Amino acid sequence: MEHSFPARRIAYGLFAAALVLLAGTLGFHQILDESWPASFYRAVVTTSLAGIDSVPDNTGGQALSVVLIFCGVTIFAFLGAVVVEAIARGVLSGSERRRRKTIEKLRDHTIICGYGRVGQRIAEEFQRAEADFVIVDNDPEEVEAAREAGMQAQEGDAIEDEDLRAAGLERAKALVAALDSDANNLYVTLSARNVRPDLLIVARASDEDAERKLRLAGADRVVMPYSTAGRVMANLVLKPQVASFLNVVTSQEGPDLRFEQIEVTRGCPAVGKTIHELHVRAQTGASIVAVAKRGGVYHTRPSPDTVFDEGDVVIGVGTSDEIRALEDLFAPAGAGVSS
Fold first, then answer.
1. How far is C-alpha 243 from the chain's CA centre?
2. Which terminus of the chain has a lower count of CB atoms within 10 Å, N or C?
3. What pLDDT score was predicted for residue 2?
4. pLDDT band at 13 (very low <50, low <70, confident <90, very high)
5. Mean pLDDT of all residues in the chain?
6. How many CA atoms lie within 13 Å of 222's alpha carbon, on the beta-carbon side?
7. CA nearest 75: which of 40, 24, 27, 34?
8. Which residues pair with 317 in a beta bridge?
9. Nearest of 254, 233, 231 to residue 245 by alpha carbon
10. Could you give the CA distance from residue 227 to residue 205 in angstroms, rounded to a whole number?
């Protein structure tokens, strides 16, 4: 492990300075026939660039003075660069330690692997939703860009288990594999699934073959950006208003109307009750457009007699205030009311 202060390199510089002083003292003593103290004094003031009391009276002494001056410039420049580097490294190390401590405090966050075009868009949506997330990318420039945008990001290779653990894999609730390579996304999925069998993994794929392999590797959801983009573009022509509406309400930067999913958990007063018994529309103003049952079965346009069971996921639509009221309605008993 390299120390933040490169003592060994400074020792090398000081050792070189000592050799130069020794050589200068010997040279002046022989060339100018001066005493040892006078020769040492001349070597010190010449090498240290402090100046000399008098110009040597022969060519040999003058040549030696020039050599010592160049050696002094080189040594002091080297030592200055080492000290500046040590100071800068200490500052950077402190910043890195603070970032690591911040990441270590995160719980139930999402790890976004890759900060390319797709990863940037994902991170922006998470940031607008004020959700906790950490970006992992091996490009220092991309990592710095994410940090400048106010995001938690660390430089590392997402296919390495150590880098995923440093991003809090054991404490995360989800992972998004958004790298440009299908092979790398496959490695990330395998690594994450091996460590966390319960982790929600969403992966990017370029084609159907990659999608199949990613699902076999353990991805819960696989998205093909090119296929999705093609479908959206087609709908913008065939059903422009519908496509625009869905794009708006599913974006975090849209107007006050939005979709939200709410899980029916243990201890929720709504368990065993119907939509009619809860008076959802009257109590919250929001509408329940679907209920996802265990096993992935969706009940779209649920009837008033639809019963909520533990583990169901409610898909609601409404304004921000209506969605908060809906979340309070399905909150476990004793949970605080949303502000």
1. 32
2. N
3. 45
4. confident
5. 86
6. 21
7. 24
8. 259, 287
9. 254
10. 10
- Residue listed under structure tokens 């001066």: 34
CA dist 309 → 61, 266, 292 (Å) = 97, 9, 10
pLDDT at 115: 95
Per-residue pLDDT tens digits for 229-285:
888 788 888 888 877 777 766 665 555 677 888 999 888 889 999 999 999 999 999
Amino acid (one-letter) located at 188: V
Contacts of residue 58, defined as CB under 8 A and 6 or more positions apart, other chains included, come to: 31, 32
Residue 203: φ, ψ to 5°: -125, 155
Section 31-57 average pLDDT: 82
Which domains, from first to last, does the chain contain? 7-102 (1.10.287.70), 107-223 (3.40.50.720), 256-339 (3.30.70.1450)
Match 């940090």 to its residue by tokens. 147
- Rounded to an integer, what distance in angstroms lies between the CA atom of residue 227 and that of residue 208? 10
Name the 3-class secondary structure at 206: coil
Spatial CB neighbours of 34, under 8 Å, sequence gap ≥ 6: 28, 42
User: Positive or negative CA dihedral for 114, 115, 118, 121?
Assistant: positive
Tokens of 121: 């868009």
Q: What is the DSSP string of 95-114?
A: HHHHHHHHHHH--S-EEEE-
Distance of CA 237 to the CA centre of its chain: 37
What's the pLDDT band for 1 if we cut at 50, 70, 90? very low
